[in-house]
Write a structure and sequence with these properties.
CATH superfamily of the largest domain in chain A: MetI-like
Largest sheet of chain B: 2 strands, antiparallel
CATH topology of the largest domain in chain A: MetI-like fold
Radius of gyration of chain A: 32 Å
Strand content of chain A: 5-15%
Strand order of the largest sheet of chain B: 1-2
CATH architecture of the largest domain in chain B: Orthogonal Bundle
Helix content of chain B: over 70%
CATH class of the largest domain in chain A: Mainly Alpha
Distance between the termini of chain A: 52 Å
Largest interface: A-B, 85 and 91 residues
Oligomer: heterodimer
Number of domains of chain B: 2
Number of strands of chain B: 2
Largest sheet of chain A: 3 strands, antiparallel
Distance between the termini of chain B: 57 Å
Structural class of chain B: mainly alpha
Radius of gyration of chain B: 31 Å
Shape of chain A: flat
Number of domains of chain A: 2
Number of helices of chain A: 18
Order of helices and strands of chain A: HEHHHHHEHHEHHHHHHHHHH
CATH class of the largest domain in chain B: Mainly Alpha
Structural class of chain A: mainly alpha
Strand order of the largest sheet of chain A: 2-1-3
Chain lengths: 436, 459
C-alpha cells in the first residue's frame, strides 16, 4: 500500500479483511479443483496404459508356439504298402500312426490304452498333416528316419509357457500328472522348443487352438475393406465435391446435408439391419460374403469421408477457383484440375481414418452372417468369410487358455493395423497439409 | 468370371479413349483449334460410350440372371416337384443350389434333382456366354457410334461434363437412399411384427422371452415381447457409463484446456483420443475377461454376490470408451467461449476455478449438455461391449451387480444364426432396431440443435 493514498475507510478495510480471510479457503478450492482435473486426466491415461498392458501381456506369448522334436520313421508299410508312390495313396495314408509310433519310441515304457492315449495327446493332430505335407512334397522320405520338430498340443504349449498351475489338483488341470512328467523329461532332454508362431499368420480358423490362425480373417478383412474403399471413396468424394462446389442452396441440398450428419451418428448395428433386410433378403446376395460386408461398411463409412472431404474442400482458398475460372476453365475443369488435387491429401486422410474405423467394426457384420466358423481362407468377394474383429469376438467366447492368448494376439495385430493406418493419416496430413 | 468381364470392359474403354483422341486429331486435320473441345474430351466421350451402356446391361444381367435361370429350371422340373407349395419349393431350390455349388447335401440326391442341376449348369453356361457376347458387342457398338459422331463441331466437353454432373448428383443422393433404406427396412419388418404382437405389449410389457414354440404341440414358453426390461437394462448400463464418462471427460477437458501446459496437452490429448480409436470388440474382450472377474472377486471379498455378467462391468468399460467423446466435444465448446469472458472474470479477482465454475461452465452449459447427449446416444447404440460382457436374460432391476440385457444384445442374439424371416422372434429384432433408431435419432437431433444454437451465440 502506498503511504500517499488516504487511509482506507473502515468499510473498505472491512472488505479487505473479509477477502483476505477468505483467500486460504479459495486457494484451497482452487488447488482442489486443479487436482480433480489432474486426477481425471491421469485416470484416462491410466485406462489407455492398462488396456494396452493387459492385452499385450496376455497376447505376446501367442507369437511363440511349442514344438516337440521326435524321431519320425517314415515307415513304407504305413504310408505306401504297395510301393506305387501314387500321390493319391500318399495323400490319404495314416500319418497319425507315424506320429504315434514316434511317441511310443520316445517313451517305450508307456503301456495301456489310457496311458497311451494321454501320451498321444502331447502332440497336436496337426502334426500328421505336417508329415503328410513333407511326404507328398518329397516322396524320397519314405523309408528314412528323421528328427522332426512337430507341433505340440495346446495343453503342452500352455504348460511350457507356465500358464498351468502345477499345484492344482489333477482333476482341475487340463493336463494330467503323467503328461507333465513326460513334458518335463522331453524338456530336460532339449526336445521341446518354442518357435515363432507362423501358424497364427498362415492358417484359417480351427477348433484346435494350436492350429488356429488369423489368415482367413485377415483375408476376409482385406476383401471387405477393398469393397468398402472402392465404393465409399469415389462416392464420398463425388458427394463432397457436389455439395461443396456445385449444389444450389435449396431445401433438397439441406435435406442431403441433414441426412449425412444424422447417418454419421446412427448406431452401427442399425446398418447391419439394413444390410440384412435390403442386401440379403431383398437382393438375395450371399450371406457371410465380404461383398455384402463391404457394402454395409461403405454405407457406414460414407458420412465420415463426405464430412472430411468437405472440410478439405473448404480449406482450398477461393482465389484458386477464381484464377482457374478466369483463364477459361469450365467449372468441372476448375474442380478436377485445381481444387481436387489440392484437397486430396485432406480427403485421403479422412478416408484412411474412416477405413480404420471400418476395419475395427464388427456389430453390423454379425447381422449379415459374417460370424460363422470358417476354416478355409476366402479366395474372393463371394466366399464365406469372417473379419478380424469378428474372429476376435468368436475366439473370446472359447474357454481354453490358449485361445485367450490367441485372441489377445489377434487384438494386437488388429491394433497394429489401426496404428499403422492412423499413423499414415497423420503423416499424410503433416506432409501435404498446406496453410494458405 | 464377372471380374474378368469387368476388367476387359475397362481395358476396352481405355482403348476407346485413345481411339477417340486420335479420331479427334484426325477430323481436325491437325488444326486442333477447330475442335470444339480439347482432344481428351473426345477421348472421354468415346470411353463413356464404350463403358456406360455395356456396364448398365452388365449390371442388370448379373442381378437377374440367377433368378431367371432358376425359374426356367423349376419350369423344366417334373410336375411332382414343380407343383409343391411355395415354402417346400424353396427348400428344393436351396438343395439345388447346394448341389450346384458342390456343397454337402442332406440326403442322397435323386435323379430329378441331378437332372435339374445339369439343366441349371447348362443354362448358366449359355447365360454367361451370352452375357460376354452382349456386353462386349455393346461396348464395341458404343465405340463405333462415338467414332462416327466425333466431328469438330461435336460438343464433347459439354456431353462429358453432363454425365459427370449426373454422377455427382447421383452420389449425393445415396445418403438419402441409405436413410430411406434403413427406415423402410426396419419399419416394414416392424409392421409385420406388430401384426403378430400388439404394439402396446411391446412398448409396455414387462416380460421379455422371445423363445416361441416351434410346433403347435410343443410346451414351454410361448414368447413374451415386452421391451421394458431391455430398455431398462440399456438405460442402466448407459447410466453407469455416463457416471464414469461425464465427470472424467468433462474434468479432463477443463484441465487440458485451462490448466495444462501446451506440452502436456500435446501429449495427453491424442493419448486420450486413442481410447476413441480402439475397436469396440477390444473393449468387449477387456470387459468380459478382465474387468468382470475383477469386480466379481472384489464383490466376493466384501461379501457381495456379483453376477459374472454384471451391468457394472459392461457399464464401466463403456464409460472408459466414451471418455474421449465427452472430453473432445466439451473441449470444442469450452474453447468456443470467448477469452474476453475469462479475462473479465480474472479482472474481478476470481481464481481460475471460480472463473470456470461461475463463468465458463454456465456459458458452455448448453454445449456440454449437447455433447453429453451425443455420448448417451453413443452408449445406447453400442453393441460389442454389451454383447460380450452383459447378460442375455432380461431382468428388470436397478441393481448394477446383477446381469441385465440390452436392446442391442437382443438384436444380435435374435438375428445371428436364424434364417427364417416370418417368426415374431426375428421380426422382434427389427422392431427393437426401429426403437433404437428412433431414440438415437431424437437424441442426436436435440444434441446437434443445442450445440449449433450455442455456437451461433458466440460467433
Amino acid at each position: 500500500m502506498n503511504k500517499a493514498t488516504p487511509s482506507p475507510t473502515p468499510l473498505q478495510r472491512d472488505i479487505k479483511t473479509i477477502v483476505n480471510a477468505s483467500l486460504p479457503r479459495r486457494h484451497a478450492a482452487e488447488r482442489r479443483f486443479r487436482r480433480y482435473g489432474l486426477i481425471a486426466v491421469s485416470l484416462g491415461l491410466a485406462f489407455v496404459v492398462l488396456m494396452f498392458g493387459n492385452i499385450i501381456s496376455k497376447g505376446y506369448p501367442a507369437f511363440w508356439q511349442t514344438y516337440v522334436q521326435m524321431p519320425v520313421q517314415f515307415d513304407p508299410a504305413v504310408i505306401d504298402p504297395q510301393g506305387t508312390r501314387d500321390p493319391q495313396v500318399l495323400q490319404s495314408a495314416d500319418y497319425a500312426a507315424l506320429v504315434r509310433a514316434a511317441l511310443r519310441r520316445l517313451f517305450p515304457t508307456v503301456e495301456g490304452r489310457l496311458e497311451l492315449r494321454a501320451l498321444y495327446g502331447l502332440v497336436s493332430s496337426g502334426a500328421a498333416l505336417e508329415l503328410q505335407r513333407r511326404v507328398v512334397q518329397n516322396p524320397e522320405l519314405i523309408g528314412a528316419e528323421q528328427e522332426i520338430w512337430l507341433l505340440a498340443s495346446a495343453n503342452v504349449d500352455t504348460l511350457v509357457k507356465g500358464n498351468i498351475d502345477r499345484s492344482l489338483d489333477e482333476s482341475e488341470r487340463p493336463i494330467k500328472d503323467n503328461q507333465i512328467g513326460w513334458v518335463d523329461q522331453l524338456q530336460s532332454a532339449g526336445k521341446i522348443e518354442k518357435q515363432f508362431n507362423t501358424i497364427l499368420f498362415s492358417s484359417g480358423d480351427s477348433r484346435e487352438p494350436e492350429q488356429a490362425g488369423i489368415r482367413g480373417a485377415l483375408m476376409g478383412s482385406f476383401y471387405t475393406l477393398l469393397v468398402t474403399f472402392l465404393l465409399s471413396f469415389p462416392i464420398g468424394v463425388a458427394t463432397a465435391v457436389y455439395l461443396e462446389e456445385f449444389a444450389p442452396k435449396n431445401r433438397w441440398t439441406d435435406l442431403i446435408e441433414v441426412n449425412i450428419n444424422n447417418l454419421a451418428a446412427v448406431p452401427s448395428i442399425v446398418f447391419g439391419l439394413l444390410g440384412l433386410a435390403v442386401f440379403i433378403n431383398f437382393f438375395g446376395l450371399p450371406r457371410s460374403a465380404p461383398l455384402v460386408g463391404g457394402l454395409v461398411l461403405s454405407l457406414m463409412t460414407l458420412p465420415v469421408i463426405i464430412i472430411a472431404g468437405r472440410a478439405a474442400l473448404t480449406s482450398v482458398p477461393p482465389s484458386i477457383r477464381e484464377a482457374a475460372l478466369g483463364v477459361g476453365a469450365s467449372k468441372l475443369q476448375m474442380v478436377g484440375h485445381h481444387v481436387l488435387p489440392l484437397a486430396m491429401p485432406g480427403m485421403l486422410t479422412g478416408s484412411i481414418i474412416g477405413m480404420a474405423r471400418a476395419l475395427g467394426e464388427s456389430a453390423p457384420l454379425l447381422m449379415i452372417g459374417m460370424v460363422a466358423f470358417i476354416v478355409d481362407v476366402p479366395q474372393g468377394f463371394a466366399d464365406p468369410a469372417t473379419v478380424l474383429p469378428v474372429q476376435i469376438y468368436l475366439w473370446s467366447d472359447l474357454p481354453e487358455r490358449a485361445f485367450v492368448e490367441r485372441t489377445s494376439a489377434a487384438i494386437m495385430v488388429l491394433l497394429a493395423f489401426m496404428i499403422v493406418m492412423n499413423g499414415l493419416a497423420i503423416i499424410l496430413r503433416k506432409r501435404f497439409e498446406r496453410r494458405w | 468370371m464377372f471380374a474378368y468381364l469387368f476388367l476387359s470392359l475397362l481395358l476396352l474403354s481405355a482403348g476407346a479413349y485413345h481411339l477417340g483422341r486420335k479420331r479427334a486429331f484426325a477430323v481436325a486435320n491437325g488444326h486442333i483449334r477447330k475442335l470444339h473441345s480439347l482432344p481428351s474430351f473426345y477421348g472421354s466421350y468415346a470411353a463413356l460410350w464404350c463403358f456406360l451402356p455395356a456396364l448398365i446391361v452388365f449390371g442388370l444381367w448379373a442381378t437377374f440372371q440367377q433368378g431367371f435361370i432358376i425359374d426356367l429350371v423349376v419350369a423344366g422340373m417334373p410336375p411332382a416337384l414343380r407343383n409343391l407349395p411355395p415354402d417346400q419349393l424353396n427348400l428344393v431350390i436351396n438343395d439345388l443350389k447346394n448341389l450346384i455349388g458342390g456343397n454337402f447335401v442332406s440326403s442322397a440326391p435323386d435323379p430329378a434333382m441331378l437332372a435339374a442341376a445339369d439343366h441349371y449348369r447348362h443354362l448358366r453356361t449359355i447365360g454367361n456366354t451370352a452375357l460376354w457376347v452382349t456386353v462386349l458387342s455393346l461396348a464395341i457398338l458404343g465405340v463405333v457410334h462415338a467414332w462416327r459422331a466425333i466431328s469438330p463441331t461435336l460438343r464433347a466437353r459439354n456431353r462429358v461434363e453432363q454425365i459427370v454432373n449426373i454422377f455427382l448428383i447421383a452420389s449425393s443422393t445415396i445418403a438419402i437412399f441409405t436413410t430411406l433404406g434403413i427406415v423402410l427396412s426396419v419399419v416394414f419388418e416392424s409392421i409385420l411384427f406388430f401384426q403378430k404382437v400388439p404394439i402396446s405389449e411391446f412398448l409396455f410389457g414387462l416380460q421379455w422371452s422371445p423363445q416361441t414354440a416351434l410346433r403347435a404341440d410343443q410346451t414351454g414358453s410361448s414368447g413374451a415381447f415386452g421391451s421394458v426390461p431391455l430398455f431398462a437394462g440399456t438405460l442402466l448400463i448407459s447410466g453407469i457409463a455416463m457416471v464414469i464418462a461425464a465427470p472424467i471427460g468433462l474434468m479432463s477437458a477443463l484441465f487440458l484446456s485451462e490448466y495444462a501446459t501446451p506440452k502436456f496437452r500435446a501429449v495427453a490429448k491424442p493419448t486420450l483420443e486413442v481410447l476413441a480409436g480402439i475397436p469396440t470388440v477390444v473393449y468387449g474382450f477387456f470387459a468380459a475377461l478382465t474387468v468382470a472377474p475383477l469386480i466379481r472377486e472384489i464383490g466376493a471379498s466384501i461379501g457381495l454376490h456379483v453376477a459374472s455378467e454384471s451391468a457394472l462391468a459392461a457399464g464401466l468399460v463403456m464409460g472408459i470408451m466414451i471418455i474421449p467423446f465427452v472430453s473432445s466435444l466439451s473441449d470444442d465448446v469450452i474453447n468456443a467461449v470467448p477469452q474476453s469472458m475469462r479475462d473479465g472474470s480474472y479482472a474481478l479477482g476470481a481464481t481460475k476455478s471460480e472463473t470456470i465454475k461461475r463463468v465458463l461452465l454456465p456459458a458452455a452449459l448448453p454445449g456440454i449438455v449437447g455433447s453429453i447427449l451425443l455420448a448417451v446416444s453413443r452408449a445406447i447404440g453400442e453393441t460389442m461391449i454389451v454383447v460380450m460382457a452383459a447378460g442375455l436374460s432380461a431382468n428388470l432391476t436397478a441393481n448394477p451387480l446383477e446381469a441385465v440385457t440390452t436392446v442391442t444384445v437382443q438384436i444380435v442374439t435374435l438375428l445371428t444364426g436364424d434364417q427364417e424371416f416370418d417368426s415374431p422372434k426375428t421380426l422382434a429384432a427389427f422392431a427393437l432396431g426401429l426403437m433404437l433408431f428412433v431414440v438415437t435419432l431424437i437424441l442426436n437431433i436435440i444434441a446437434l440443435h443445442v450445440v449449433r444454437k450455442y455456437r451461433e451465440q458466440y460467433e
